[in-house]
Write a structure and sequence with these properties.
The protein has 594 residues and is α+β, with helices and mostly antiparallel strands. The chain contains 13 helices and 28 strands. Strands 5-4-8-1-9-10-2-11 form an eight-stranded mixed beta sheet, sandwiched between helices. Strands 17, 20, 21, 23, 24 and 26 form a six-stranded antiparallel beta sheet that branches.
Length: 594
């Protein structure tokens, strides 16, 4: 009996040790192209309606100077997931290889190994969606639009085999519902949720019911962005109310952070919602200067909220700069995860937010993005773009209107030396990876030099009715006897044809019948609904031979999502194309020459 009693006692102690897991749940909500101004509680823009976001802010901390690690989607997300500045593993921009990222350990993996249930929802943008689980996420619901997406759970939180899932809900609502379902399912376990809302990033696809909340005179792009942010707000309300219902509010740390600033395209043109996927997204960076793609404040000074009721005092406006890189370091510390020196670039923010540590979390924050680099140390910020250099006192000039580099040369020199030493540690090293592209020179001229911007030129496309929507680049395209004839303009520059405004649910198999006058590689490239440009990874090549006979090639495009734009490349020289079409997964063939 004594043995039984001892065993029973040991069992009770063991069970109690599991039940006494006091580690908090951690939720990271990541918005997309969300401008600094677009939080109602800031009081900057009066047309917003974000009551749940405002309530989240009041329950915790508004990071007055909260920063992303990049002014663009992919590197920003890579930094967030690893807790390491992405330039350390060669993930500098959206076109960078993901090889370095794939070798890194994500915070999801660290937490999963520490016993946390991990789940990802929404936009991933760091490689193929079916591979998200290899980066530490047990559950995946990667809906980021109204097309098929990868998931191994349903919106009700039930398990299913990883594979394509057709959208049942508007993507922002679906992610919110799935996240709330996982909270319900794992209410007794520590969990880490990464909810990456694709909002208000283009395409601006808010349902009419959300847009109707914002009547009156305003640009339609603004109305659509407000509608998408209203859906985000509803989702935050569902998540926080679920936590409250389950008694988890005081056991859950929540971050809400934007991935980068809003793209304004200088002019904030109110172009048709379905005709300019890369235009202004309707969000605003007021009063900050610049926009997405710049290391000025408008490019990466973002909405940044932190709440942990009962631990972090509520109603705070935190004045010291903080970074999205701090999320991983904070989560690792709270989960008792051992981290080797140099593994993470952020810091545990909790002692700073509770008042235990009065010092600033960071001596300085530093960035590098393509041809730009910047450092913020206290109130001072040094910003470089190509050969240009600016020094701002952000304490007095958050709008970055007054360049003090010539007035404070010693400060500029000290910050430049500090920035250079840091940048030389990156992979590859250096404060810039190349010259400034013309578009960024134009943006620096307008925002930082005060030069007038050229008026936008209305887009005019040729009449493509005779070529069924296809357009030639570096050549001319004509239809003769039901066959496309592509004639290059320059013998040294290959021509190609392109067609946009497609709605193809990938993956698809492209079928093309053609003949060329040169032997070489052909290629089909595609752009997804969330891509601003054609990515190097979204291209499949095939061999072509110079012959008078028609050649038919079937090429599978491994596109997970909606394909909206295609390009067909051929070797230098004239070519004739008799058929271009796509075959969907169910075997249905659709001709793109009709």
């Amino acid at each position: 009996m004594k043995i039984i009693a001892v065993l029973a006692s040991s069992f009770i102690v063991l069970v109690s040790s599991f039940a006494a897991d006091t580690r908090p749940n951690i939720i990271v909500i990541y918005t997309d192209d969300h401008g600094h101004a677009d939080l109602g509680i800031r009081g900057i823009e009066k047309d917003l309606k974000t009551p749940n976001l405002d309530a989240l802010a009041r329950s915790g901390v508004i990071a007055k100077h909260g920063y992303s690690s990049a002014p663009q989607c992919v590197p920003s997300r890579g930094g967030l997931m690893t807790g390491k500045f992405q330039g350390r593993f060669n993930l500098d921009n959206n076109q960078s290889s993901l090889d370095g990222f794939n070798k890194e350990t994500t915070i999801a993996t660290r937490l999963q190994n520490a016993g946390y249930v991990t789940a990802q929802f929404g936009k991933w943008h760091l490689g193929p969606l079916p591979e998200i689980t290899r980066h530490g996420f047990r559950h995946v619901y990667a809906q980021h639009g109204q097309q098929k997406f990868s998931a191994n759970i349903t919106a009700d939180g039930k398990d299913r085999p990883m594979g394509d899932l057709a959208p049942e809900y508007y993507h922002l609502d679906g992610c919110s519902k799935a996240a709330a379902s996982i909270i319900e399912r794992y209410k007794d376990d520590p969990f880490f949720l990464y909810i990456a809302f694709r909002a208000p990033h283009t395409p601006l696809d808010a349902p009419q019911s959300y847009k109707d909340r914002f009547p009156g005179e305003m640009p339609e792009r603004r109305r659509a962005a407000l509608g998408m942010l209203a859906a985000v707000d509803e989702g935050v309300g569902l998540i926080t109310s679920t936590l409250k219902k389950l008694g988890l509010t005081e056991k859950t740390l929540i971050f809400l952070i934007g991935d980068n600033g809003a793209p304004l395209k200088i002019h904030k043109t109110d172009s048709p919602l379905n005709g300019d996927a890369g235009g202004w997204d309707g969000s605003l960076n007021t009063p900050l200067n610049g926009e997405k793609g710049m290391l000025s404040e408008g490019g990466m000074h973002v909405p940044f909220l932190i709440a942990w009721p009962g631990t972090i005092p509520s109603g705070q406006i935190y004045e010291h700069p903080v970074s999205a890189l701090d999320v991983a370091a904070t989560a690792a510390a709270l989960a008792d995860v051992k981290v080797n020196p140099g593994d993470l670039d952020g810091v545990n923010l909790i002692p700073h937010l509770t008042g235990e540590n009065k010092a600033p979390p960071h001596d300085a924050l530093m960035w590098r993005w393509v041809a730009q680099s910047a450092i913020r140390e206290g109130k001072w910020k040094l910003l470089r773009g190509g050969d240009r250099e600016y020094l701002y006192d952000l304490g007095a000039d958050i709008e970055e209107k007054h360049n003090l580099a010539s007035q404070e040369p010693e400060i500029a020199t000290r910050l430049r030396s500090k920035l250079k030493a840091w940048a030389d540690e990156l992979n590859p090293p250096g404060m810039a990876l190349g010259p400034m592209a013309p578009v960024w020179n134009d943006y620096f001229d307008f925002y930082l030099e005060g030069k007038p911007a050229q008026k936008p030129v209305a887009k005019t496309e040729p009449d493509t009715s005779a070529t069924h929507g296809w357009i030639a680049r570096n050549g001319t395209l004509t239809m003769k006897g039901g066959v496309f004839v592509l004639t290059p303009e320059n013998a040294k520059k290959p021509a190609f044809i392109t067609r946009s405004q497609l709605k193809l649910a990938g993956p698809v198999t492209a079928k093309i019948t053609l003949k060329t006058t040169a032997t070489g590689a052909g290629a089909i490239a595609w752009r997804m609904s969330d891509d601003k440009d054609f990515l190097p990874a979204n291209r499949v090549t095939f061999d072509l031979k110079a012959t008078d006979d028609w050649q038919t090639h079937e090429i599978t495009l491994p596109a997970n999502g909606r394909v909206i734009h295609l390009r067909v490349h051929v070797p230098p020289g004239p070519a004739s194309i008799r058929e271009i079409g796509v075959k969907s997964a169910d075997g249905r063939f659709v001709s793109l020459l009709k």
